[in-house]
Amino acid sequence: MRLRHALILSLLAGTVAAVFVTLDLNGRLEGLEDNASPEAASLLGAGSAYLLVLGAIAVANLASLLLLLAAFREERAAALIRAQAVPPPPPAPGPAGDGVPPEPAALENEQAYAWGKIARWEVASGKPFADLWNRACTGVYEGTPKAWEKFAKFLDAPEFDAESSAAALDPQGNFIGAVLVMRQLPYEDDNYWWLESPGVVAAVLVDPAHRRKGIGRSLLMRVESAMTRRRRPRVFVGGLESFPSLVPGVPEGDHATRMFFTASGYQEVRRTCHMEASYEGFKPPKDLVQREQNLKEKGYTFAPARVTDLEAFRAFTERAPIGRPQRLVEKFVEAPERFCLTLKDDRVVGYIQVTRLDENRRSGIQQIYFLREHRGVGLGSVLLIKAHDLWKNIGAMGGSIWTYPEAAERFYPRAGFKVVQVWVCYHKELPHAWSDDAYVRRWR
Asked: For 438, how many CA atoms within 13 A lie in the half-sphere containing its CB?
């Protein structure tokens, strides 16, 4: 039985029960008002119990009605999302008929729909997209409105996939929506080739006046079609590490957009919390102050890095299992003021590194690391407190970090961080065959 049917039956049953109890109570009490017998008094006393039952039934009916309305609304919205005027064409075989995906230039330029058409992304689409974003996303996404320079930097990034991105146009050719896609560029890093990677949807945006027509779903299917042609294994929604992004996902409170991706076959893959802190007025908790004192008694010291600490830090990177240690040493040489070190017996055993200042003069946590044999004694929480001193020294207005919900609840609030917004990232597996000979030949 579907949920709405059960709710309807519950509502009807509650209504019948309420009517029956009311009639029964009214009939019993009508002839007892002038009767002074003990039985009459007992029945009149029971009237309050009947009223309590009626109140509980009324509350249950009200809750059932509200749930019924919510169920109808969600089902109607999901049906509108699934409704498509024209599905995108299936992937076409290559010139040799062996299933090799065509080059990006061979992808369809336009697709016609009842509401208009989907066209390839053009450079001229940037300004209309920025205007629509600032008009439609105010109050939903943090940092909106955004300056044009922010959009221009994003669209000029080498990771921006203009071939897979698309614009939605109405019958008069007016810009009414777009989907922006990112790609991971092939590169060699530590002898590991990233030859194939997922597509990343950075934004799906439709003009509010044209929503509920299937435009957003059509744009999303266009991306999935392009990714399937290129043998991408999956599509992510939301920025991944090392990807430039307008937003890192879907706001937790944006239930309409979250339901849109769920109805489109996407699954939640992770959540990211944006937290911020300010050193103005911040006082470390007493237990962390005591913990730092206890660690000092055990031989640990905490101090901002200096240029003279270079050799000690280089020796630490040689002992620690850190990827690309030479690059970390280079960052230390470039900006030692962004490091705070933990030492024991005159040897570096851990550190915290903060990020450069952003356009809002805010910094962040680049990395916290300490040797395995020194874990579990509380170094991490003390180092996090030291980040406030680093921010003050480099002239930052405060700190901003991105972390997972577990750390946002347990670790960072004690260091003065507060949650600004929680973002949800989604992904969808696409049809692919890793043993496809044509695919293997393409990237061999």
From this structure: 15
Give the residues across from 228 on adjacent strands.
none
Tell me which residue has tokens 């991490």. 380
Q: What is the pLDDT of residue 194?
A: 38
Residue with tokens 């050719």: 173
| pLDDT at residue 106 greater than cutoff 50 | no
CA atoms within 13 A on the CB side of 306: 5
- Of the chain, the percentage scoring pLDDT greater than 70 comes to 73
Higher pLDDT, 4 or 349: 349
Q: How far apart are CA 139 and CA 115, in angstroms?
A: 27
Binned at pLDDT 50, 70 and 90, residue 89 comes out as very low
Supply the DSSP symbol for 234. Answer: E
Backbone phi, then psi, for 165, in 5-degree steps?
Answer: -75, 160
| H or E element that contains 222 | helix 215-229
Which residues neighbour 411 within 8 Å (Cβ) at sequence distance 6 or greater? 380, 381, 384, 403
Q: What does the alpha-carbon distance between residue 224 and residue 43 come to, in Å, rounded to a whole number?
A: 70
- How far apart CA 183 and CA 178 sit, in angstroms, is 17
Q: DSSP readout, 162-182?
A: TTT-EEEE-TT--EEEEEEEE
Q: In sequence order, what are the residues at sequence separation of 6 or more whose Cβ sits closer than 8 angstroms to the Cβ of residue 406? A: none
Of 144, 406, 401, 141, nearest in space to 251 by CA: 141
